[in-house]
C-alpha cells in the first residue's frame, strides 16, 4: 500500500501530460519566448495581449513562433524559467523582469549562448540585455511639476507611492520629492504606500483622511489612484469644480474623469466613472512596450542594429489633451485620441496608453482580446 | 525521540528492525518516492538526455528554498512556526550586495556576516519564544516586519553587486562538468544537520517538539533547546541568503518575500509534522526540490499560465496524499465509522435510541456565590481577561498617540466611523480564521477566496442592484461550499490544514484568472457602494452591520453547541471524539464558516472600491492571523475569545491608520509596526513555570 499511492501520482502525472502535451509545429520561424512575471493585474494582461497580437499580426506571424510562460511573483522561478527556455533552444526571450538585478546571472548565461534578452517596462541591469521602458525619473518629475504649477507653488499635498523596494517606485518618488523640495510652499502632509493598486489606494486614502480631512488637502501626487481619489471626493460631497488637482496614473477611469462635465460623446458612464472635469495630469508606463520589445527582438535576430536601451516617450495627457476614441483603431489613436468609452471598457482601472507610432500592428482589439489590427 | 513515539505503536511480536526503520523514516521515504517519480516525469517529457547543464541549473534553482526550508524545519520540529524566513533571506541579500568587496578575505568575511545576521535574528526570535514564553508565530511576525524595515534601510531599491568569486564559489562548479557547487553546499548543510541531530541537542529538539512537559520532566533544558533551535534556523536562513546572493549576483530588498508560503509547502512535502516532534531537514531538501520540479514540469508542458497555479495546488495535494493513504488513514477511519453507524442503526443500537436510560450522575449543588459576586466574576474570567485586555490597552494607547500627533481625533466621529469601516474586513475575517485557529488549524485560502468571490460576484452584478439580490447570496453560498471542501479534505483525506488551504488558494487563484481572463471587468452595484461608503443614521451602513456581526460571532463561539465543539476540538481531538463531539463535522463547519467570512469580505471589498481586482485579498492573509493571535488566541488551538480578536483588529487598524497619516519613511513604519506588535503581545506570554 505504501508504494501504490506514489505510483498513482505518477500515473496521474502522465495522464496530465498526455492531455496537455501537444507537439510543436516547428517551421523556419524565430523561436521566441515571453517570460512574464505576475499576470494578476490589468497592466500585465493588456501587455501580454498586445504581445500575442503582435506575434499574430500578418507582418510577424510567418516570422515568429511565440511561446508565453508565466513565472509568478518569484524571482527564483523566473531564473529557472529562463534557464529552461535557453535549454529549449530559444533564440530570443522577451522578459518582464520581476527584479532588475536578480536575473543578471541567468541573463549573462543566456547572452553567452547567443540568446537575445530583451526586457520591457521594468529593466534588467545586466549590460548584455536590451531594455525597453520609460524614464522613471521623468515619470516622477513631470507630474510633480504639473502639480506644483496647478497649486501655484503653495499647498498641502498627499503622496501615494507604489511598491516599496522596487526601482520604479524609488526613482519616481525620489524624482517627485526633489521637485517638491524646491518649493517651500509645498508641504507633503501624508505619504502612503499604494502598491500600484486602486483598492489599496482607497484603503490608504481612507486611513489618511481620518487624520487629514479633504479640507486640509490641496492636491495629490499618486502613482496609481487618482480615479479612486476623485471618487472619494464625490462621495464626500465635493462638487466637480472643487475637485483637487491630481497627478496620477493612465487608467481609463482617470482619463474619463478628466473630460469636461457632461461630455455628450461619452457612452456608458456610471457613478464616478464619468466626465467630472477634474484638474489632472495622467502619465503612464505604456503597455505596448512588450509588443515593441518583440518587434525589436525580431529586428535584432534579423541582424539589424538596435540600441541597448529604447527609451519610450512618456505618455502625458492633461485636461486640454484628453480626447475620446470611438473605435480605438490604431489609425484613430494616431490622430490623437487617448481615452476609451466606458461602454467598451467597463473596468475603470484599465490602462489607456496603448498607442505608439512604432506599433501600427496593434490597437484596442489587441489590448482587449489579443487580436491584431486588420 | 521519534523512536519512542513509534515504539509505542509497535505491535508486540513483530519486531523486525527494518520495519521499524522504514516506519521511522516513512515521511522521508515517501517524499523521496514522490520526488523520484516527478523526476522521471520530467526526464521523460524533456527532449534529449539529461545534461550536466540541466542538473546544474536545477540544483542551483532549488538550493535557496532547500536551505531556508531546513531552517524552518528545525523550528517546526520544536513545535514552533517561523514567519521571518523570507525577510531574513532578503536582509542577508542586501547586506552582502551593498558592502561586499571582491577580495577573498572580504568574501569569506561576508559569508560569516551572512550567517551572523541570520543567527542574530534567530536569537531574538529564540529569546522571546524560549525565555519570554511568547507564541512563535507572533514573535516571528513582528521580527518579519522589523527585518523588512531594516532591509529597506540598508537598500531602498535593487542594486549592488556580489563579487564574482563569491558567486561562482556557491553557484558555480565544484568540479567542472561533474559536480555543481550547489550540491556540495547542500551536502555540507545536510552533514551539519546530521551532526546536530545525533547530538544531545538534536535529541532535545525532537523531545521538546513531541511533548515539552515530558522533555522538561526528563531533565532537558527546554528553554535553551528552543533558543538554540531558532539560532540554528537563523544560520540556515543566513546561508540561504548568501546562496541567493551568489545565484543572482546582486541585491534586491524584495527577493525573499514570495518564499514564505513555499517554505512551508517544502517542509510539509518533506514529511515533517507541523506541530513538532516528527520529521527532519533531509526531507525538506527533497520537498524543496519536489516543488521546483513541479514548476519544471509545468514549464515543459507549457501549461497555460492561468492553469499553472491550479496544477501546482493539485500536485501539492496529491504529493501529500500519497504520504497519507493507507489503512490508518482518516478516510478509512470514517468509512469504518459510517459502516458501524449504519450497522448500529439497523440493530437499533445507536445511543439516540436509548434516550430514556441515560444515567444522570448526582452532582453536588453548585456553590453559591458569596456576597462579593463581582469578584467571583473576575475570578472566573480572569484568564480570559488577561488574554483579551492587552489588545484593548494597546488600542487605547494608539488612540492617545493619534490624538497627540494629529489633535482632534478623539472627539471626531468621522475618525471612528472610518476606523470601523476599515476594521470591518478584518473583524469578519477574524471570525473565520479565529475559528480555524481555535481548532488548531489555519486557513491560508483567505486571499484568493476573497479575490475569487469578489471578482465572480462583481462580474455577475456588473453594477445592477437587481442582479446583486441573487448574486450576493450566491457568492456567499459558494464561499461556504468551497470552505466546506477545505474541511472535507482536512477531515476525510487527513491533509494538514496548511496544505489543504494553501492548495485551495492556488486553485482559486487559477479559477479567478480563468473566469476573468486576466482582466476582471465587473463592478459593484450602487447599493453595494452605498453600504460601504454611504451613510445611514449617521455612520456608514457597514458599521451597523459590523456591530450585528460581532454580536452574532460572540454568540456563535460562546453560546452555541457548535462554538463549544470548536474549543473542544482545539483542546484535544481525542478527548473531543471520546466525548461524542463530531470532530469531522465540526472541522468542516469551521472551514465552511471561514469560507463564508472570506466570501463576505470579497463582496464588501468590491463594494468599498467599486470594483473587484485580482490580488485584492493579498493584503489580508497575515493580518487575519495577526489579529487573532494578538487578541490572545493560542495558535495551537483551544484558547481564545472573539472579543480579544476584535481588540486585535482595533489595535492593528488604528496603528496602521496612525502610521498612514504620517510622512515617516516606509522602512520606519515597518519597524514601528513590528515593535508595537511585539509589545502588544508581551503581556500575553505564558506564565507557566
Spatial strand arrangement across the major sheet of chain B: 1-2
Estimated helix fraction of chain B: over 70%
The CATH architecture term of the domain at 49-302 in chain B is Orthogonal Bundle
Contiguous helical run count of chain A: 12
Oligomer classification = heterodimer
| Order of helix and strand elements from N to C terminus of chain A | HEHEHEHEEHEHEHEHEHEHEEEHEH
Q: Give the largest chain-chain interface (CB within 8 Å).
A: A-B, 97 and 111 residues
Question: What is the CA-CA span between the terminal residues of chain B?
Answer: 24 Å
Strand content of chain A: 15-25%
Category from helices, strands and their pairing of chain A = alpha/beta
CATH-defined topology of the domain at 49-302 in chain B:
ABC transporter involved in vitamin B12 uptake, BtuC
Shape of chain A: globular
- How would you sum up the major sheet of chain B? 2 strands, antiparallel
User: Which percent range describes the beta-strand content of chain B?
Assistant: under 5%
Low-confidence stretches of chain A at least 5 residues in length (pLDDT < 50)? 1-26
How does this structure look, described?
Chain A is an alpha/beta fold. Chain A is built from 12 helices and 14 strands. In chain A, helix 4 (104-112) links the parallel strand 3 (92-95) and strand 4. In chain A, helix 7 (198-211) packs across helix 8 (226-235). The longest helix of chain A has 17 residues, at 4-20. Chain A starts with a helix and ends in a 5-residue tail after the last helix. Residues 1-26 of chain A have low confidence and may be disordered. In chain B, 73% of the residues lie in helices and 1% in strands. Chain B has helices at residues 2-9, 17-24, 26-45, 52-77, 85-99, 104-131, 136-154, 164-171, 181-197, 200-210, 212-217, 222-248, 259-269, 281-301, 305-324, 330-347, 373-406, 413-438, 446-461, 465-492, 497-516, 526-533, 541-559, 561-571, 573-578, 583-609, 621-630, 642-660, 666-682; strands spanning 173-175, 179-180. In chain B, helix 20 (465-492) runs antiparallel to helix 21 (497-516) and helix 20 runs antiparallel to helix 26 (583-609). Chains A and B meet through helix 1, helix 2, strand 2, helix 3 and helix 4 of A and helix 3, helix 4, helix 12, helix 14 and helix 15 of B.
